[in-house]
Amino acid sequence: MSAERPQDPKQSIPHTAELGLVSDCGSCFGLCCVALPFAASADFAIDKDAGRPCPNLQTDFRCGIHADLRERGFSGCTVFDCFGAGQKVSQVTFGGRDWRQAPGTARQMFDVFPVMRQLHELLWYLAEALALPDARPVHTALRAALEKTERLTRGSAEELGQLDVPAHRGEVNTLLLRTSELVRATVPGRKKERRGADLMGARLRKADLRGANLRGAYLIAADLRGADLRQADLIGADLRDVDLRGADLTGALFLTQAQVNAARGDAATTLPSALSRPAHW
Question: In 217-230, which positions are buried (b, 16+ CB within 10 angstroms) versus exposed (e)?
């Protein structure tokens, strides 16, 4: 009997599209425009309470000023990403019943949406971690966590409402931390440890941040032009108005489209292959 051929781990890694982690606003009931609150600021032109529809939301759940959001003072809307949670809640959890036609479901739907968004964000990170060859020692645990998280997303509205999300995030974060350590360990030299650091407005032009730990760092309006951020861990980092022109983010860990959308860059900015260059760059 011949030896079993080793399985190529990439063949069984779920793609983000397969997991439904790409936002499909056409299949959503405008949940981010209703369920979430926002305050008048540089990101939003008005105050809006949670559960109250944005005045720009039309009856067909489309945004009436979508093409002019930045010019009209709603730049915060352009950087938001639900990771596909909107369509999951709309089409799966509530079976296509929208909150206008079935107002009795509205409050529960609005409560479930932020829970689903957190679960989908975790799925995004887990799928990325499983695609990293250097994280092979924890692939089995990562896959189990991904499967568990995906099962949770398919629970009933009642089950999702009772879910202890912080506890589940804690379990997943332990694996993501280990993934980060394994990948960054392959980067030669001493890596900068700036987890949770206050780097707002910092002058870091052409800084060598390869393999750095920038988890949860506050990088608002920092100057990172031409910086080397390859294999840097950017999970949860605040990149609002960061200047990334000419920066190299090849292989940056746990970087999301929302973070990229919130930053400033140009044609010379190098992004991970899973992310798109924002139109406003």
Answer: bbbbbbbbbbbbbb
Residue among 152, 215, 153, 150 nearest 178 (CA) = 215
Contact 233, 184 (CB under 8 A): yes
- Whether the full predicted model's pTM is greater than 0.85, yes or no, is yes
The 3-state DSSP class for residue 196 equals coil
Q: CA-to-CA distance for 29 and 18, rounded, in angstroms?
A: 21
Would you give the end-to-end CA distance of the chain in angstroms?
58
Instruction: pLDDT tens for the chain, 281 residues: list them.
Output: 333 333 343 445 566 777 889 889 999 999 999 999 999 998 899 999 999 999 999 999 999 999 999 999 999 998 899 999 999 999 999 999 999 999 999 999 999 999 999 999 999 999 999 999 999 999 999 999 999 999 999 999 999 999 999 999 999 999 999 999 999 999 999 999 999 999 999 999 999 999 999 999 999 999 999 999 999 999 999 999 999 999 999 999 999 999 999 999 999 999 998 899 998 89
Exposed, middle or buried, 113 (CB in 10 Å: 0-12/13-18/19+)?
A: buried
* Residues 224, 244: Cα–Cα separation, whole Å: 5
* Pair 217, 252: CB distance under 8 Å: no
CB atoms within 10 A of CB 7: 8
| Beta bridge partners of residue 233, listed in sequence order | 213, 253
